[in-house]
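Figure 2 data, in text form.
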Amino acid sequence: MIGSIIGDIIGSIWEGKQSKSKDVELFCEYNTFTDDSVLTLAVAEAILKKTDYQTEMIKYYKRYPHAGYGYLFNEWANSTNPQPYRSYGNGSAMRVSPIGFAFHDIETVLDEARKSAAITHNSPDGIAGAKAIALAIFMAREGNTKEEIRAKVSSRCRFEIKNSVEELKIFNEENWAFNGSSIEESVPVALLCFLDATDYEDTIRNALYLGGDTDTIACMAGGIAQAFYREIPDWIIKETRNRLNGEQLDVVDSFNRAYGIDYL
């Protein structure tokens, strides 16, 4: 799941913007984790401790209350009786990556993705987005090709994915399109950032280049790229770890040990 956290931290300074080229600096003094990383860690801790997703998400929200959550999630986390609010935003997909790494068959991955989404994002789109990212990570981890991942995710989750990053860039410019924060807008973009990349770093650069809800798109794409490429440049790992606290690093490292994940 570190691949997702890296994408969030790198993308944090680009949210609502896009880079003019892929050749940009990935880190500066302002890069930081956002709600994407916080809730990803919450899902990971729920898996490690075998607790429920809602309990851990609310616990992490209270621990990091200023990480940039959406209005509806804030209301949900502060409620005395939290109920799902049928969101079709990308929050369910941004936090799901640990599920794709932790479970060992497609049906369990999809069911856990559904459970993690439905506590807040119980709309068809909200659940489909979480399933799509978790399924892509699981398939990448299992050694499937990009063509196989594209075909299965597209058919099972019914997302239309463009053929290339440049094709999508041109389409967006010609149609004044903007990759916003809904599942329908962001999940296919995240999948494309991975599918049309040459390695982990190129995946993240694709997300910055396409823009939109950049931290979340890079977070989703980064999790898939980690599972597929199984190698992340050491300097990127170091820069990321420097922006996490000891408690957060403990969860990352415990998760990696528990599930035999190595990315160097």
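Caption note: The domain at 2-256 is CATH 1.10.4080.10 (ADP-ribosylglycohydrolase fold).
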